[in-house]
Amino acid sequence: MKLCPLPLSPSCPVPPKIVPFSFGDEPFTSGDSAHTVCAAAEGDLPMDINWAFHGQQYSSMMGITTTKVGARSNMLQIESVAAAHSGNYTCTARNSAGTRNYTAVLVVFGTFTHRPDSLPFSNVFPCLVKKSLPRRRRCFFF
To answer: Which sequence spans correspond to the domains of the chain?
Structure first.
């Protein structure tokens, strides 16, 4: 990385600056569609923008898709959310001047149809258990 003699000098590389984003203020219910956009308001091009779920690459088999929207933004979309989608989604913007991250939390009301240890990842989520139908539990994941 090149050191700049004067801040904001035209010859200085500019790292990405991510605009804060979220999935909204309200929890989602299983089956809802969720999306958010990660955009860099500043930063030299070219720029790579990628997503991670709980700090790891996600699988498209999880129903998560990402779409590049121009040179400075990327949209993450889940067509039909489930309890397993609850958690931290981190956007990473990287260019020659540096790397910046921003994380948003997706909260989904859902019902596990099988035990949490059978999910495709090893993370354990705390939940508030609420009674609904007999022998089923609705969990609020945070």
So the answer is: 17-107
Q: CB count, 10 Å around CB of 25?
A: 6
Q: What is the pLDDT of residues 70-99, one digit of tens each?
A: 999 999 999 999 999 999 999 999 999 999
Structure tokens belonging to residue 73: 């933004």
Instruction: Express each pLDDT in 107-133 by its tens digit.
Output: 999 755 544 444 444 444 444 433 333
Sequence-distant (6+) residues with CB within 8 A of 81 are 28, 29, 30, 31, 32, 33, 34, 106, 108, 110
Distance, in Å, from the CA atom of 88 to the CA atom of 5, rounded to the nearest integer, reads 38
Q: Which CATH superfamily is domain 17-107 in?
A: Immunoglobulins (2.60.40.10)
Q: How far is Cα 14 from Cα 12, in angstroms, rounded to an integer?
A: 6
* Region for 31 from its dihedrals, namely left if φ exceeds 0, alpha if ψ lies in -120 to 50, beta otherwise: left
CA 6 to centroid of chain Cα atoms: 35
Q: Does the reported pTM lie above 0.85?
A: no
- Distance, in Å, from the CA atom of 5 to the CA atom of 22, rounded to the nearest integer, reads 36
